[in-house]
Amino acid sequence: MNSIINFLLLISLQVCCHQFSEYPNPDHVHKDKNPHKHHELPLAEEGQKYPNYHKIVSSNSEFAFKFYQEIASDAAAKNIFFSPFSISTAFALLTLGAKSETKNQIHKTLAFNISEIEEREIHEAFQQLTHELSHPSSKVQLNIGNTLFIDESLRFLATFLEDAKTFYEAEGLSIDFSVPRLVKKQINDYVRNKTHGKIPLAIEHLEPATVMVLVNYIFFKASWEKPFDIRLTRKRDFFIDANTTVQIDLMRHMDYYNIFRDEDLSCWVVEIPYKGDITALFILPDEGKLERVEAALVTETLSKWTTSLTYKNIDLHFPKFNISASYDVKYLLQRMGVTAVFNDSSDLSGITGECNLKVSKVCMGMRLVAGILPFSLNQIFSKKIFIHKALCQGI
Known about the structure:
- This protein has helices at residues 54-75, 84-94, 100-109, 119-134, 158-168, 180-194, 290-295, 299-308, 329-336, 349-352, and strands at 10-11, 16-18, 140-151, 170-175, 210-223, 234-239, 245-262, 267-273, 279-285, 310-319, 321-328, 357-370, 376-389.
- It is of the alpha+beta class.
- The radius of gyration is 22 Å and the shape is globular.
- One of its GO terms (cellular component) is extracellular space.
């Protein structure tokens, strides 16, 4: 029986969530325990201080799911593809220079409870997490970076720039914003070099009042631990919706994987490892159950899935696909409660010492390629925060 397949793609700190194209075969069961346990970031050695990045994992996951729900409410039948880690990192960096209600709103939306975690601990956690993710196994290529481009008429406060470099490995570059065409070229060339040419056009439009641009980029490339055999790849129908079908290359591999059948949500979950210490978690809702699974995307559900996985022999079918997406992050964050940083009450005086800065635009562009040869998944994220001069009101 043909079924409609809708891709569900969620990128978070712990997991990549997709759908794979057909049900796992539950008849092939291996009773031995999985020698490849679910990969997690390393814990502290016995007697050592517990890594700070564990203090923000639940917050980052909570933000990821809430942001997903905001996109899903408008996305209709479109694919959803975004990087919550990119958003969280860039705005956490921005709080180094934010004050008063501007900072409070960002912390609240990013799910950081300042009564339970100190601000410095948040930044230390991002520092450690970025370091861990940027220095994985040599089998994985993962580059994460933050860069602040500022107009020559302004100067970063020494404390802000030092903290941005220390906690977020951010570069601060002074350029002449008076010629937008040249500024776009400088920024685009910079990002293109940092992402191995995968993001050739980071900025398409730059408004005249812009005096600062914060760019966060992520480049990830890895090969599957269990490669698909190209000889088993076949052209198959792929159902985009009830009335639209396209021909795709459907890869196939029969092997042991961690899987779980969630009867409550009517979906299958399968974990597919890359070479190295990173895995992807794919979710396949039963026909007509996608919205039900989406509504249940919370940290508790993720925990249930990852702790319930069992090692079984399955007949895995996986499509070759490309996904590109872009979002007006400003609009989505405003709906989630971040408003002050976007209007004239914005207080970003901790960046330059001036009170007339506000964020005018936040955009994100992504591209993902799941290929047959090489057997790899490439994820490229780029997020830009544009800061303009603003009137100084209520500060």
